[in-house]
Design goal:
OB fold (Dihydrolipoamide Acetyltransferase, E2P); 3-stranded antiparallel β-sheet; 5-stranded mixed barrel; mainly beta; binds zinc ion
């Protein structure tokens, strides 16, 4: 078994620097992120890394009012599925957008969220 073109570790290291990366299937052209082992569309294993702009629109969102203990101090906050310009969707936390302004189709831009434990997660804020 060969290494994926973009490992989860590399994905989050790049995300930390503000760069979202997807992988494109060399066989059928399907985009995927975060990295997967096999193309869910054609089951090929020919991933090529693709840099994403980080611009997208909200496809759906949920306001979290009761959170796991680690995030309890942050409620309420929103998580959204964001459809990126390149056509791939990703789940991220919404920051710096008032909850009442959230709407399907709202334009957002990727930003890395660095946690207290220095882990990186995917966030989206205003464009
Ligand atoms: Zn494919």
């Amino acid at each position: 078994m060969t290494e994926p073109a973009v490992t989860a570790r590399a994905f989050f290291e790049k995300a930390r620097g503000g760069q979202l990366t997807a992988i494109r299937c060399g066989s059928c052209g399907e985009l995927a992120m975060p990295p997967k082992e096999l193309c869910p569309n054609c089951h090929a294993h020919q991933w090529q890394p693709v840099a994403l702009t980080g611009d997208g629109t909200i496809a759906s969102f949920t306001v979290i009012r009761v959170a796991p203990r680690a995030h309890a101090a942050d409620v309420p906050y929103a998580v959204a599925v964001v459809r990126l310009k390149e056509g791939v969707s990703v789940l991220g936390r919404i920051v710096d957008i008032p909850l009442e302004k959230l709407a399907i189709g709202l334009a957002v831009r990727f930003r890395p969220l660095i946690g207290k434990d220095l882990t990186t997660s995917v966030g989206f804020g205003p464009t």
